[in-house]
Amino acid sequence: MTDATTNPGAAGSIPAAPGTSTSDLAVEVRHLDKDFAGTRALNDASLLVRGGTVHALLGGNGSGKSTTIKILAGVYRADAGDLTIFGQTHDLGEYTPATAQQAGLRFVHQDLGLFLDLSVEENFALDSGYPTRRGGIDWRALRRKVTRLLAEYELDVDPRAAIRTLRPSDQTMVAIARALQDQDSEQQLILVLDEPTARLAAHESELLLQRVRRRADAGQTVLIVSHRLREVLGVSDDFTIYRDGRLAGALVDASPTEEELVEIMAGKAVRALHPTGDRAHADGTPVFTARGLRGGPVRGIDLTVHRGEILGLTGLVGAGRSSVLKMLFGEHTPAGGTMTLDGKRYAPHNVGEAMAAGVAMVPEDRAHEASFMDQTVTENLAVARLSENWTGGFMPRGRERDAARELIAEFGVKVAGPEAPYSSMSGGNQQKVVLARWMQRRPRLLLLDEPTQGVDVMSRADIYDSIRRAAAAGCAVIVASSDLAEIHALCDRTLVLSRGKISDEVAAGTLDVDALTSLVLREKTIPDAATEATP
Predict the structure, then answer these.
(1) Considering the entire predicted model, what is its pTM?
(2) How confident is the model at residue 532 (pLDDT cuts 50, 70, 90)?
(3) Is residue 306 a contact partner of residue 282, using CB atoms and an 8 Å limit?
(4) How many structural domains comprise the chain?
(5) Which one of 10, 17, 228, 301 is least enclosed by Cβ atoms within 10 Å?
(6) In the beta sheet, which residues pair with residue 445?
(7) What is the DSSP secondary structure assignment for residue 421, as one 8-state letter?
(8) Residue 176 is inside which H or E element, if any?
(9) By CB neighbour count within 10 A (0-12 exposed, 13-18 middle, 19+ buried), where does 445 fall?
(10) Do residues 352 and 382 share a domain?
(11) Co-location of 345 and 460 in the same domain
(12) In a domain, 17, yes or no
């Protein structure tokens, strides 16, 4: 790691890169304060972004980075602080979204704001306006403009194609190109990317960030907010880290390790994010088996998971990870194959039968498949045990609240209380609630699909600890994840899926993350048994 990490108490003293001056800075934010109903979200925070660099703004949920981005966008009004953009100082009391646009800030959020059923060129025109000719839309002029922009942003995409037909990384690049389409030689723009890879698989993220890096090398200034530290390490020049609304560290022209960033974010070493080396909890007793399992993209797989074992499933998008879990949880009916649970035939016709057999699942899409956003934390926790809580024709709310308080404490959920709205929590704390909901049932088999997607690093560590505790208590766990660092940190054994079949089996400690990545990207083709030649 090069250059210095600031003293966390000296929030205004971010170092400039050697040989640079204030004139090299695209954004200067100093002494930023923001309160929400008496809660201090930002406390004397600062952020300095050098022009022509990729700058990562990092921190756990509640650290203040999202609040800072919304102040930069003019969505929130700061209580105090100084803001300078390309040398021009702005009054934060009068700062609005229009001010941010005029100053040269352009934002691409996790929700890209694209109209999926409209064409690429129509999405550009909705933002910039349609060119006209003789009283009508000049489609040729629009197509020429969009074709030029697509080429500039390395997008081999038909301007007439509907957005929903594009792969996810190309959709994100279209959003970036659209945001910067008014950039010219006379006006510099600053691109702010808020969790740009949260919805992307690992190889899609890599492709996107390579393109972003090349834009920065050509002079584009990029400020990126992300929970995926491994990704930003590969693309960023400078790093600003927030903790509890204050500046915890600033690294300029730096090459930190992931461990160094995590330690600054947490204020201490976080060991849960790394392999523990302790695999003694797996005792070799099979809990679940599948033989010749088929359905959807899954073309016939055999797997066994043992008591106390954490089994990983990974592979490219479409390889069948999620489909396997949904068949195990009774959400999808297999087209073929057999399954056993604790040595007995297992063939759930629905989710209820799977739950009754002792199977639990945390799905990938937390917001739509696992949460009741408009309900309380207590209600979200209690929903998995309604029949047990129902007494004498009524629901004892006091008992539910008491159980919720215990689970909140056990799983380290940061929330005002059990009656707080589920939607009021950060993504990491929402995911802890979903995990706690299922873990209170003491499942025999726990299925986890992308368990830490969109979760900050501290919540990730807590979730890893909870998963390991479940395995140590004898639960068999299957983790399906595209995050290979996660697979490497958590799993005793990993199955790599390729086009619906198992291409490789990897024992813990035998391969590092880079070697696992090579296996996944290799896309080995496994022939169907029916088409295999007989020796």
Answers:
(1) 0.71
(2) very low
(3) yes
(4) 4
(5) 10
(6) 359, 476
(7) B
(8) helix 168-179
(9) buried
(10) no
(11) yes
(12) no
